[in-house]
Structures are given as C-alpha cells and as structure tokens.
Sequence to fold (526 residues):
Amino acid sequence: MEKKKSGSRFFTSGYLILVMLFIYLPILYVMVFSFNDSKSMISFSGFSTRWYEAMFENREMLESIYYTVVVALIATAVSTVVGTIAAIGLSKARPLIRSAILEINNLPVLNPDIVTAISLMLLFLSVKIQRSIVTLTLAHITFCIPYVILSVMPKLRQLDDNVAEAALDLGATPWQALTKVIIPQVYPAIFSGALIAFSMSFDDFVISFFTAGVDVQNISMYVYSMKRFNPSVNALSTLIVIAVTLILVAANLIPALKERKNKKEET
Amino acid sequence: MKSFFRMSYPYILWIALFIVAPMFMILLYAFTRSSSGAITFKFTLENFSRFLSDPTFLKVLWTSLRIAFITTVCCILIGYPAALFIANLPEKRQTLMTLLLTLPMWINMLLKTYAWRGILMNFEMESEIKVFIGMVYDFLPYMIIQIHTAIAKLDRELLTAAYDLGANKWKSFLKVTLPLSVPGIISGITLVFLPAVSSFVIPKLLGGGNYVLIGNLIETYFLVAGDWNFGSAISLVMALIIIVSMYLTKKLDTSTEEG
Fold:
C-alpha cells in the first residue's frame, strides 16, 4: 500500500514538472539564447552580451519600448481614475441601469480583440481622425476601463452604505466622503485593477495594430512586423521577464508585509 | 447617495463614444457597400452572401473552428490532470503553483510566440502542428487555473463521504470530483475556445505566410484590400458564431447543474 502511494505521488509530481517545463520552456530558452555569441537559435556558441548592446543601439526597438511604456502609463492612470469613479457612481445607481451599463462595459472584455480593434478603427477613420499615438491611447483607455470596473465593483458592493451615509450626515462633503471613506476601503481593489490595466495595455497587440498610425508602434507591433529574425528580441524578452517577475513578487509581497507590520503594531 | 450616480456620467459618455458607436459602425459597414471610398447608405446582404457562397472563405472558417476546437480539447486533456494534482498539494505549494502559472500570463504574447518560433526552427514539422503547439501553450494556463479554482472550492467532506460509503478512488472521482468541476471546465472553455477562434498572431508567426485563419482574413480585408464592408461582415459572422457557442456552453453548464 505504502509503496503504491509513493508511486502515485512520483507520477503526479512528474506530471506537474513536465507541464511547468512546457510552460517555462520558451521563457528559459530566450533567456539562455539572449546571451548567445552567435545569431543562431539552435546552437549555443559562447557567452556574450552583444544582443543587449545591439538592443540599446536599435533605435526602432527603443522607440517601440518608449511608446509601449508611455501609452501604458497614460492608459493606466486615466482608466484607473475614470473606472474607479464610474464604479462608485454605478454602485449607487438603480439595479436596472447598473446592469445595463455593466453589460456594455463587458463588451470589450468578451468581444474578440479583433472585433474591438476594427470597430475603433472604423470609428476613427469615419470621423477622419488620423490614426496616431492619440488614437492608440484612446483605444487603450477604452479597453482598460472595464478591467478596473470589474476589479473595483465587487469590493464596492461589499461596503456598508451606512458608513458613507454617516459621514455625509456628520457634515462631510460628498468629495470628503469619497476620498476619506469610500476610496480607502477599496484601495487594494483599485490597485489590482490598475495592475491588470497596465499589463493589458503593455501586452496588447491586436487593438494597437489597428488603431495606431503608421509611425507609431509598440513592442508587440515591432516584433510582429520584423522581417528577419533578430536575437535582440531575446534580450528584450529577458528584461521583460525579469521586470514582470519583480513586479509580481512585489505585488504579492507588499500586502503580506503590510499585514505583518499591522499585526505587530496591534500587539 | 443619488448624487453619487452623477459620477458615472463621464464614463457613460465614454462608452457611448468608444464602445457603442464603434459597434454600430461595424453593423453599418457590414450591411452596406462603398463606392470610391464613401459609404452608400443602402441596405444590402451582398457582403454576407459573398462570404457564405465562396468555398475558400468557408474553408477558412472551418479551419479556424477546427483548430480552436482541438486546442480546447488538448487544453482540457493536459490541463485537467494538472489542476487535479495541484489541488491535492498542501496549501502553500498550491499558492506557489498558481503563482508560477500566472506569471507567464503577464508576459507579452508576441514575445512568447516569437520564442516558440526560435525553438521550433530546430524541428521539421507541418505548420499546422506548430500553430497547435503555440495555441495550446498560450491558453493552457488559463484552463488549468479555471479548473483548479473549481476543484479547490469543492467540499472535501463529500470525498470523505464517498470513501465511507465504499467508493474507491476512481468511483469517487467520477461521481464527485468530475461533475462538480464542470463549471471550471466550462469557464476554461470560454477563455480558450473564444479567443482561439479569432486568433491571428499565432498562425501568422508560427504557421508561415500561407496559413490563413479567419482573423487573418479580417486583417487582410481591412489593412490590405481596404474593403471595410466585407471585413465588417466577416467579423460579424465570427462574432455571431462566438455568441452562439457561448450561449450553448452556458446552457450546457445549467443543464449539468440541474441534472
């Protein structure tokens, strides 16, 4: 019996290791080959940082990183503010109106990206707005807001309405009730909504591809339009993997550390 | 409290401009034709009949559905055991495994697909298999996480009860765990099948230039051919198929709950 049990445990951990290897294979692969001395993606001929140097000399690639970051930052800031305010407003709306607006809000989440993309492209073209970094940013804000609302709304609905009501009764202005009572209570949800919005914008390809002009491209568009294989992309991917890991670890650690600190202060 | 509702006015204006109006544009273009760049406001089904009567287009639609279907099945077959095994781990390990599964989701899909292109350059294989690998890779974590969430929520007492009543491991899996994890599989399907149907990056990067799915067709008609009316009609057909399949999966979900 004992033997059988350890046998099945061997099987299950083996299986999980294989699945994880599959999921991490391309990530490890680009990390290794970003340090390859030659252009080959097949054989590793020696250690070098030449692709990192090449990356920092590649104007087009640096520009795409710049556009990606700028658009993601603006889209995150605007969508977090607009989305949070809208969610607070909607949580006080009549149920029928609320659910109707939330249905529309869900459209960009549920629709295939390509449908959202061409719908926005048709809008911009038919009112004769040149596609540029402005239209790109507008499109990103549009598909980011729903994620902020979806993240903040459930937390808002758990809140006790009476607390904000009490603040108003005690003479707080609606603005004070909002900033001193409501927002502090849903802060973590706003933060995770902003994080999702940032990653959605940072990683987007399809919607950007249809709504940016000819002279603006983000990282995804740059990689897509590359004619020949370029190992500098491996260097870029490696840097992004490291950044994502750090951000995710920090996002998971900071709340845990805060909680520990709070507990210490309580005792 | 009512004054708070006013706070959502800017957002309502925003969705009217950037979600509702653009959707109407697709409808408008799909049911009209343009002459010399300007739209002629005359209702027509020409775009749809052109799509539905041409075997080449129908073949592309069929290939997209077939690939999305096989990708979904593969994700369930590989993902289900993984989700089950993770759910059986101690709690701390489960959190670690979910974090490990989420991490790659945050990394740009284009970059991951490009990495696969590098790996698959080492192998001689059909382009369709390369597309499959890329698709299953991209969607597998979503499937595992959905199924794992459903299994982790499951009441352990039910399994103990099943054992007490004399069920063996297999029987209790088939009668307890599997039926109760169906909602997880269903939400996994919606997260895999629907985006897989419309995917056009993976076929382009891994399948080479001659591998066309419906997403690629829409791209071509919008950006190369410049026929927005026909492109809109194709995307409406695709959206319709997606809505119908979503409705059917939801129905499957409620019927298993009742049964």
Q: What stands out?
A: Chain B touches chain A through 77 residues (CB under 8 Å). The CA atoms of residues 89 and 97 of chain B lie 9 Å apart. The longest strand of chain B covers residues 33-35.
